[in-house]
Amino acid sequence: MSAPPSPRVPRAGMRRLMLLSAAALALGLSACNITWTAGKTHGAIIETSAARASIGIWRAPTRVLYDVYGSAGITTVQDILCAHGTFPTLRLAVGKRSVSSDALKKKWCGYVRGDGADLRGALIDAQRQRDNCLALTLISSGAYIKNWTHKSAGCKTGSLQ
Amino acid sequence: MIASRSVSQALFAAIIGSWLLVACGGGGGGNHDASKELTPTPVCDVVEIPHKRILQPNDLTYRQVVDTETWTKQEVGVGAALLYARGERDLGPYTAVVDHLIDRYEADQAEPPVDSPAPTTAVRRSADDLDGALAEGLCS
Fold it and tell me: Is B83 in Cβ contact with A80 (below 8 Å)?
């Protein structure tokens, strides 16, 4: 009669599997170079390989803003984005270009209201792509820009703070 | 020993009673003016945009949204806007209606679907209070 298998063996195996999964996840995230930094409702997204820095809107899933848009139009979405948000405390920086948290706060409503058509297009695209993250890119290829876009990684479910 | 315990119990009852008296506004019934008890800013941060941008243009009130059985895109937009803005703000007497509408929105959008919460008497009263306060210029 053989001895029953030790419970330590599967537990150790499971631990190793989890470590491998974590390592794979970390490797995958570093490969796509998308990093969330501090921020309660608007997170900084830094993509170093593309020399790109964006603000990701992640207070709630994009669906919420899309429903507001469907009900009351893009102006109301702009009102909400302008009125609500806690910005990252860290400087949004890639290479020699950067946007400080203070500058971001001062300019935020201008960014939000500056191009309603661009925001609307990004919001619709984000929703079509299964609730992607809505983002405002401020630095791309090392240059300052203002471009609403959407991103698939790191912000699908959002955070309610 | 027994006397000491009785004194303690009495003191405890007195403290609780005093607290209830203050919390309930002197026991004058539920006809209080909620807008005077709360700084309007946190409430307005949450309720003003849906009120001005969705409810008013469509001749709707928060109470009507509460009582609407099948939400159209207007009511959905109200729930969504409240959810985005809610955060952890202290909404005082309007907490019940705002949280109910957010719960309803989340239930309606859930996949797979879940049952929507039914409005309680407290929710309806909270909605009426909010509509009344907004009509009196809470966020003007």
Answer: no
